[in-house]
Design goal:
GO cellular component, one term: cytoplasm
Keywords: Hydrolase
GO molecular function: phosphatase activity
CATH class of one domain: Alpha Beta
Radius of gyration: 18 Å
Helix content: 25-40%
Distance between the termini: 33 Å
InterPro entries: Ap4A_hydrolase, Calcineurin-like_PHP_lpxH, Metallo-depent_PP-like, Pesterase_MJ0912
Strand content: 15-25%
Protein name: Putative hydrolase
Structural class: alpha/beta
Shape: globular
Strand order of the largest sheet: 3-2-1-11-12-9
Number of strands: 12
């Protein structure tokens, strides 16, 4: 069966539930999460519970790490959100459920391999907190060369909240430039970013996730094809989340307003 890859939920249960409903509609049973389940958003506990229930595994994101330990190099609004998020988990009255959630966060993977594909939150070089930006292919070719040297064929990562594919030319292809699914090539290394479920930053406010098909697997149209990745964008009630954020005194209103513009 195909695999759905989600990332950067950031406590946005409204977006996550829309994405999971689409995954269910496509009858995709296996879901992987690349981290940042929590942080920024108003429903961190619900998002973690949903990931625990639905995902085969999840990676450790920098916001997950910050809630577990301490937020370092965070701006003020992100730091405040991390401390507020921690208090939501600590407020759980059921000690067994509270332990289960903290244990799950503490056991999130740093690096993982699936059939030769590396999975991380941020980058193969620094898996929790290094950004791999589209502009890096032009402004930091040495950085890109080092990053591509850390894996053999493919890597999936999130963190930037920008959907697309990096190749080892190096180059970056947003979904609009691909004109359809990206076909994997044996002779080419690539890094795939599925975008963000709960806080896109590519000026498109719709939720983003990716579907990975192995060679011969049929897509939503019932047709098979070569190994490939397909990007999916979905609308959800962004305004409802903006209002939730505004109702929490310890969350900056900016964390809601940015969702309206996908930034």
């Amino acid at each position: 069966m195909p695999t759905a890859v989600i990332s950067d939920i950031h406590g946005n249960i409204d977006a996550l539930d829309v994405v999971l409903a689409d995954i269910d509609r496509r009858k995709i049973e296996r879901v992987l999460c690349l981290g940042d389940i929590i942080g920024y958003g108003p429903d961190p506990v619900a998002c973690l519970d949903r990931v625990m229930e639905r995902c085969a595994f999840a990676m450790m994101g920098n916001h997950d790490f910050a809630v577990l330990f301490e937020p370092t190099s965070f701006n003020t609004s992100a730091e405040q959100a991390a401390f507020w998020t921690r208090r939501q988990f600590e407020a759980e009255p059921d000690p067994e459920l509270r332990r289960k959630r903290w244990e799950y966060l503490g056991n999130l993977s740093i690096r993982r391999w699936e059939n030769g594909t590396m999975l991380v939150h941020a980058s193969p070089r620094r898996p929790i907190n290094e950004y791999v930006f589209p502009d890096d292919v032009l402004t930091a070719p040495g950085k890109m060369e080092q990053i591509f040297s850390r894996f053999e064929t493919r890597c999936f990562c999130g963190h930037t909240h920008v959907t697309g594919v990096f190749t080892d030319e190096p180059d970056f292809y947003p979904p609009a430039d691909l004109g359809g699914p990206y076909l994997f090539h044996d002779e080419e290394k690539c890094i795939v970013n599925p975008g963000s479920v709960g806080q896109p930053r590519d000026r498109d406010p719709r939720s983003s996730y990716a579907i990975v098909y192995d060679d011969g697997e049929a897509g939503d149209d019932g047709k098979g094809g070569p190994a490939r990745v397909e990007f999916v964008r979905l609308e959800y009630d962004v305004q409802a989340v903006v209002e939730k954020v505004e109702q929490v005194a310890d969350l900056s209103d900016f964390l809601g307003q940015r969702l309206l513009e996908g930034r």
